Amino acid sequence: MGRIVDVSCLDVSWTPDCVRGGGASRYGSRGPQGGWIHHSDRGSQYASEDYQEALKQVGARCSMSRKGDCWDNAVAESFFATLKEELIYRGTWPTRASAKAAIAQYIDGFYNVQRRHSTLGFVSPIDFEVLNWEQRLAAA
């Protein structure tokens, strides 16, 4: 798993409008080559035709586990377990907005830039991206 790029819909259910709305602009500005991956469970809102179409409209590829196989999405599941262990279970927040801000700070200020990931060769997601781009440029 690479960088986590959006938490704009944490305070609402992910809906097609959320995908098309504020969060989608972050994906476009980040400009991942080959699109981006949206990890989710098999909830009916994520599997719906309207939701899948919204993902296609913003250049996303849907990643959800096969029925009865949680290992399909193991890296995404690992992120959520890490988020809970390193942040959620260690604090309390008086409002939903303050919890959302704490999660965004954790992701943007620590998880993406400092935390080393075994699936990325024990570098942070941003360091992994930089190394990947440097290797692509050197090969060109």
If you had to describe this structure to a student in words, what would you say it looks like?
The chain has helices at 16-20, 22-30, 44-47, 49-57, 74-86, 96-111, 125-139; strands at residues 36-40, 60-64. It is mostly helical and 140 residues long. It has a single domain (16-139), classed as Nucleotidyltransferase, domain 5 (2-Layer Sandwich). A two-stranded parallel sheet has the order 1-2. The longest helix has 16 residues, at 96-111. The model has no long low-confidence stretch (mean pLDDT 78).
Mean pLDDT: 78
- Any idea what the CATH architecture is? 2-Layer Sandwich
**Strand content of the residues, in percent?**
5-15%
Spatial strand sequence of the major β-sheet: 1-2
Tally of discrete structural domains: 1
Oligomer state equals: single chain
Radius of gyration: 16 Å
Largest sheet: 2 strands, parallel
Secondary-structure element series = HHEHHEHHH
Structural class label: mainly alpha
Q: With helices defined by DSSP (H or I, 4 residues minimum), what is the helix count?
A: 7
Strand runs, count: 2
What low-confidence regions span 5 or more consecutive residues with pLDDT below 50? none
Summary of the model, kept short:
This protein is mainly alpha-helical. It is built from seven helices and two strands.
Tag the structure with descriptive keywords.
140 residues; 7 helices; 51% helix; 7% strand
